[in-house]
Task: inverse folding
């Protein structure tokens, strides 16, 4: 394992230093192994590991390439790891979301177009006044994703997308067990949207915080 780790570090150094750039094809296995002073077996293991986390792309019959290194692509690995969360860590995921998402919502104020705001409004209008819990949670995910994607920060967007999964079940359970959860969620969505239309970044940040904190507080009360 130590030899494989060394191989990973050497390939990483080549990418970080610019010797290998996004989209570049790696030298042939025998050439690269000789250049880095590695065995072909340890190089193979390193390439396999880096392909799993989307640093490298192994194309059968064509060679191995450095990926685009786009944040959304790289953070797919985080989504995979997050899927293994335990139920007792959901509060921690909500706490991180409460820190990041209000900031992204405030940032979106400067970037959301009138057309995008109209689309968010259509989503809420289509949901109606008494949606099912499943419909509400599905809309909730799309509503916040649409806002965060307009934050202008692809890393923040990818991080929040990764964090949304572990909190989905908590949101569904809250909708099924808390009497006013549906109406409160609809009200908070409208308030966030109003703040965005007014280009009031601080109001948007505050309402996003209230929205996430309400789920967090409910969950704490049930534990």
Result:
């Amino acid at each position: 394992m130590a030899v494989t780790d060394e191989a990973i570090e050497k390939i990483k150094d080549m990418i970080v230093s610019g010797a290998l750039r996004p989209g570049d094809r790696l030298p042939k296995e025998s050439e690269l192994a000789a250049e880095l002073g590695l065995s072909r077996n340890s190089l193979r293991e390193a390439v396999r590991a880096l392909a799993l986390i989307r640093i490298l792309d192994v194309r059968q019959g064509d060679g191995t390439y450095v990926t685009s290194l786009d944040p959304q692509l790289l953070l797919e690995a985080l989504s995979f790891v997050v899927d293994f969360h335990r139920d007792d860590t959901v509060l921690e995921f909500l706490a991180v979301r409460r820190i990041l998402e209000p900031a992204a919502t405030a940032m979106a104020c400067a970037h959301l177009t009138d057309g995008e705001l109209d689309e968010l409004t259509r989503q809420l209008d289509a949901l109606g006044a008494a949606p099912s819990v499943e419909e509400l949670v599905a809309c909730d995910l799309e509503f916040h994703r649409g806002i965060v994607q307009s934050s202008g920060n692809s890393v923040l967007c990818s991080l929040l997308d990764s964090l949304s999964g572990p909190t989905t079940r908590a949101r569904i359970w809250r909708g099924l067990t808390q009497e006013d959860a549906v109406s409160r969620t609809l009200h908070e969505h409208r308030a966030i949207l109003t703040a965005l239309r007014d280009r009031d970044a601080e109001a948007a940040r505050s309402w996003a915080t209230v929205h996430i904190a309400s789920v967090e507080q409910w969950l704490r009360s049930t534990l």
Q: What stands out?
A: The mean pLDDT is 87. The radius of gyration is 22 Å. The chain is about 70% helix and 5% strand.
